[in-house]
Hints:
Blueprint: H1 20-32, E1 41-42, H2 44-51, H3 55-67, E2 71-74, E3 78-81, H4 86-110, H5 113-131, H6 135-152, H7 156-164, H8 166-177, H9 182-198, H10 201-215
Antiparallel strand pairs: 1-3, 2-3
Amino acid sequence: MNTQLDIETENKHVPRVVLSDRVKQYIVEAVLSGELKPGDRIVENAMARLLGVSQAPVREAIRDLVLLGFLETEPYKGTSVRSFTPEELWETYMVRAALESLATRLAATRLTEDDAATLQRILDSMMEAARNQDRNRVVQLDNAFHEAILKFSRNQTLYQLWKSLEYGIWSIVTYRKSDLDPEYLAARHEELLEALKSGDPERATRVMQNHIEEMGKPPEGGE
């Protein structure tokens, strides 16, 4: 059954000065944590009261997430968390594989010591979250690790294309995360970091492709 956010029983608080991207992040994290599920309604005024903000940033965040395909709006029904079919998730994942493989090839030849240190810090945090069996945190850090690689490719067009798929990417990770051991998922990034640090674009691309293919599975009957 579809549900609305229950603002009367929630104890969460977000600072009043919240930009639309903070509201957007809150909605995405609520979906990642399972607090919001596919089909759940997002009510603008209820969300604004819950977060202690005006309706303007909430309206903007909802609009952006609809454009990104994370939420959907139907006449007379309002806005709700989008339900992705396995086929839609797999299509998004195939595009992700192509973009991240190219980004990894570029990053392997452009990675600085500071870049490598940033990736190591993310990986260390991911390993700690995995040891604590904090699946949601592992998923968030997994996304941060991959986004950093896109940034370190230093190709703005490639990065913007990836960002346009970000919420679909998060959805497929969430879709599969219940099948994954968080410590194994975190450890898989160690090999990827070492390949990037090697400066060998062929090796780094191969490791990234294997990494992505292991995470993604085509739907039953898919190609």
